[in-house]
Each structure stands twice: as structure tokens, then as C-alpha cells.
Predict the structure.
Amino acid sequence: MAHLTQFEKRRQRVRTALRQRAAGRPRLSVHRSGRHIYAQLIDDAAGTTLAAASTLDKDVRGKTGATTAAAADVGKRLAAAAKKAGVTQVVFDRGGFLFHGRIKALADAAREGGLEF
């Protein structure tokens, strides 16, 4: 068996817990890199993306995506797109990332925008 990094172990642990709690709700999946942050709502049953937002979107592209303010903006835009798609309840998938900094800012902004998790 291949040796898993701490990040990969954490990701597996989070995904396993999500499967138990999902109950048919879409998954709000978050990924961050050194420069950008990405978020999408995924319907795992159908295998489709319902809504997505990132710091690479055209209206935000000129700004840096490596700040908590940018992450909060992505969270607000994702919540608006989710409302437009008719989604209010989701399961938050932080992947292997700690719930801190940009991930927390995105989650808080999505909650303020009307998503429940």
C-alpha cells in the first residue's frame, strides 16, 4: 500500500465523515492553492456541478486570490449562484484543508449568503 501524506489522510477522513452526514444534500467542495481559491456545489448522486465560483472568474480576475477577503467574495458569489440553482442546504467539504483562514472566510460568507451547513 502506498504511503499517504498527512493531507491525504485528512482528506479521506473528512470525505468518509461527509458520506455519513450528507443525506442527499449537495457537497460544497473547496480547494485552495497559493494564489487562488475555488468552490463548487456538487451533486454526488448525479455526478454534476450545480454551481461554481473562484478567484479566476472574470469579475475578480485582476485582484489577488490569496486573501481572506477574496475567499469571502467567492463564498458570497457561490451562495448567490446556489440560490439561483435552488440549493439552500449543503454539506461543507473542506477536503484536507484545515478550517482556518481562507477556508473559514469562504464558509462564513457562504453562510451569510444563505447556505445552511
User: Anything to note?
Assistant: The two ends are 35 Å apart (CA to CA). The longest strand covers residues 37-43. The mean pLDDT is 92. The helical segments are 6-21, 68-85, 102-112.
